[in-house]
Amino acid sequence: MNLREHDNRKDMKVWLSEAEVVQLIDAAPNASARIAFGLGAWCGLRSFEIAKVRPQDIHESDAGTILRIVGKGDKYREVPIGEQLVTQIKTAAEFRGEAEHLPIVQSQGDSDQVPTRTLRRWINQAGEQLSMHDQGWLYLSMHDLRRTWATNLAAAGVDPMILLSWGGWSDIETFRQAYRGEYAPAAHARERDKVDWL
Predict the structure, then answer these.
(1) Positive/negative CA dihedral, 40, 66, 105, 38
(2) pLDDT tens for residues 67-92?
(3) What is the pTM of this model?
(4) Domains within the chain, CATH numbers bracketed
């Protein structure tokens, strides 16, 4: 986990390693929260985008399985989505016996769109549970999952222009200043391994 202070706030920005993302998802308070955390950390969706995702938004393309969404500023974009998350979404929809057009992330079985405050409550609950091992979890927000996603993709060598397209950013400077950490946690670990006494 990497932490950095916000420029004009006293709380922290958080970047998670891939293993920490799995820890977070395992600590989710319910199935909808697990899907919501996955959509944030593995697809880079914003909270309001997560609340709108429906099973019918998943499509097969020549580039693989994608999620088609309308995001900030009513901008359309396509984001890759992994098979594990696709399976979770489809299984949840089948279990509920619901139509493809209803939001998949729900609060206590409601068919209405879950409010973003519910997403904040879920991530706070998971963070509190995980904070027994590391107090940094108490700073975690839903938006930090988007930060984590972007930084981990950049660290994996994803083409910056493709990354901008997936994330819905219009320019590289906005991405660098607001989302990308200096280095992913995996990059820090790799560099430490180069030094015998660390």
Answers:
(1) negative
(2) 999 988 898 999 999 999 999 999 88
(3) 0.86
(4) 2-192 (1.10.443.10)
